Amino acid sequence: MVGLKEELLKSIWHAFTALDLDRSGKVLSHNLCTVLNVPHDPVALEEHFRDDDEGPVSNQGYMPYLNKFILEKVQGNFDKVEFNRMCWTLCAKKNLSKSPLLISDEDAFKVWVIFNFLSEDKYPLIIVPEEIEYLLKKITEAMGAGWQQEQFDHYKIALNTSREGLSAWELIDLIGSGQFSKGMDRQTVSMAINEVFNELILDVLKQGYMLKKGHKRKNWMERWFVLKPNIISYYVSEDLKDKKGDIILDGNCCVEALPDKDGKKCLFLIKCLDKTFEISASDKKKKQEWIQAIQTTVNLLRVGSPPPHKEARQKRKELRQKLLAEQEELERQMKELQAANENKQKELETVRKQLEAAAARAAEEEKKRLQTQVELQDRFSLELEREKMVRQKMEEQVAQKSSELEQYLQRVRELEEMYKQLQEALEDEKQARQDEETVRRLQARLLEEETAKRAELEKWHLQQQQTIQMTEAEKQELENQRMMKERALQVAMQQLKQLELERKEALEQYEEVKKKLETAANNTKSWKDKVAHHEGLIRLIEPGSKNPHLITNWGPAAFTEAELEERQRSWKGKKATSE
């Protein structure tokens, strides 16, 4: 959105500078809101431009108002050509040259739009010589003519001596004058300007007639194809009035060459996610150009790069900024070197003056030094004679002192030798005393150890006697316990035999009781069968009641608890009657 805003501001700036804002600012704002599809309220617009110095235009100026209330609301869903044409209409009448030009007003409008695209991002807007050369080369190539580099170099030199670049109206005059299109008619120049306009402004990367195969009828129809950075549109003719469809391009699309078939040559295929398009070019060269152009567009979409002409413009701008920065840095360094050179010159002049003053002082001092040196030589000769006499006396005294010193040193050496002998004697005596003390301490320690050993042996003897006595008592006690355990073991064995006999008797009794229980069970079963037959209780097996059943010794009961109670009452009544 920042780049879009800059592009809009350039066109608006032309209209803004061409109008009397006090009378026409409201009209400009209304037209901008209309062509940019920005929702606006006419009543609020009147409030913004009222004359009581309270509206935002009066307080802040028109450009802040334009940014806040119009440009920040632009979404990009507007016709750029219509927007540029509105701004052109407002500014062309005032600024366009009255002299006859070799281009039409429509071509001048397209040159003006191209100027806004290539101009620098600073106001007042100008186009620098490098961009002028780029534009003129594009137009010359579109006309099929040769580029006159030497002619432009002379023009560039003349331009650089007077200004940095050209305004939009000067660029229109330059192209309209035919200075760089000599020998070309108006129609050729107009077609070249239109081609450059389509490429730079409408992002038309390639266009031309080709045959397209239908998806339903499978017939081949001639269409005018227009390739843009993310779409291929095809029309009935090149006037672009009757649009037949679009081919949406993205990073997943691909283009492939096809062999000739069905009488069609120079075929290629465009594969998209939802559809596939078969197209036939007029010749092999056109086929290869279209395949290469479409593939380049898809590759740019994959990496997210802008269209080639926009990327090239940005690179040229960055290069100019880099060169400008380097030039400024070079100028700064040159100024620093010049300043440093001037400082060095001043320093050298100061040093030269100081050297001249120092040389004068040195000559004066040299003269004084020579005079002083003569005086010093005379004085030194006297002093030297006196020094020789004093030296002789000193040598005699030194010889005498040397003899005395030698005697003194001999005496000192003798005393040192005696001191060393005395020290050795003292060391021997000290060592003998230490040895005697060590022997004495060793004897005392041995006596103490012998006494302690004697006491320990006596203690061990007493403990051994006590242990022998305790061992005899424990042995007797263990013998008694063994006798008691043997007697208890015999008693336990007798009890175990008795229990074994009792277990056998219990098993025999259990077998007898088991037989009796079986006999009683058989008798009870026979009795139950008889009672059931007598009472007529034998009946068909039917689904049981949902109430809980009684449990007997032989399994679930044949009746419920209520039925059993009824039977009991009936038996009791019969029993009472019989009694």
UniProtKB/TrEMBL annotation:
Annotated GO CC locations: cytoplasm; lamellipodium; nucleus; plasma membrane
This protein's record includes keyword DNA-binding: yes
Compartment(s): Cell membrane; Cell projection, Lamellipodium; Cytoplasm; Nucleus
Molecular function as annotated in GO: DNA binding
Keyword Membrane attached: yes
Record key words, sorted: Cell membrane, Cell projection, Coiled coil, Cytoplasm, DNA-binding, Membrane, Nucleus, Phosphoprotein
One protein family per Pfam: EF-hand_SWAP70_N
PANTHER family named in the record: SWAP-70 RECOMBINASE, SWITCH-ASSOCIATED PROTEIN 70
SUBUNIT field: The SWAP complex consists of NPM1, NCL, PARP1 and SWAP70.
Protein's name according to its UniProt entry: Switch-associated protein 70
Designated gene of the protein: Swap70
